[in-house]
Amino acid sequence: MVGRAQGLYALASQEEIGLLMVMNFAFIEGKYNGSSISVLGRNTVFSKAREMPVIGGSGLFRFARGYVQASTHKFDLKTGDAIVQYNVYVLHY
């Protein structure tokens, strides 16, 4: 493990399951240890692929810009547990 996803989400739609995602990818190992990438955007969880903007970061990712593509690989309706892949494309100084 090189990091953790930390944040919160809130329901953001009346017609479909859409979430407002506020999330940090916080790195805990290697070159980026102590740095993070911040994401804020709408996530329509039942869409095959979703795109959310990278709005900044900290440490080595200060002034980061880019986007995240999320796709769900597994979702358990009974427990609410999900396995989601996040591909992060980021530019930073």
From TrEMBL:
<comment type="similarity">
    <text>Belongs to the plant dirigent protein family.</text>
</comment>
<dbReference type="InterPro" id="IPR004265">
    <property type="entry name" value="Dirigent"/>
</dbReference>
<comment type="function">
    <text>Dirigent proteins impart stereoselectivity on the phenoxy radical-coupling reaction, yielding optically active lignans from two molecules of coniferyl alcohol in the biosynthesis of lignans, flavonolignans, and alkaloids and thus plays a central role in plant secondary metabolism.</text>
</comment>
<protein>
    <recommendedName>
        <fullName>Dirigent protein</fullName>
    </recommendedName>
</protein>
<keyword id="KW-0964">Secreted</keyword>
<dbReference type="Pfam" id="PF03018">
    <property type="entry name" value="Dirigent"/>
</dbReference>
<keyword id="KW-0052">Apoplast</keyword>
<dbReference type="GO" id="GO:0009699">
    <property type="term" value="P:phenylpropanoid biosynthetic process"/>
</dbReference>
<comment type="subunit">
    <text>Homodimer.</text>
</comment>
<dbReference type="InterPro" id="IPR044859">
    <property type="entry name" value="Allene_oxi_cyc_Dirigent"/>
</dbReference>
<dbReference type="GO" id="GO:0048046">
    <property type="term" value="C:apoplast"/>
</dbReference>
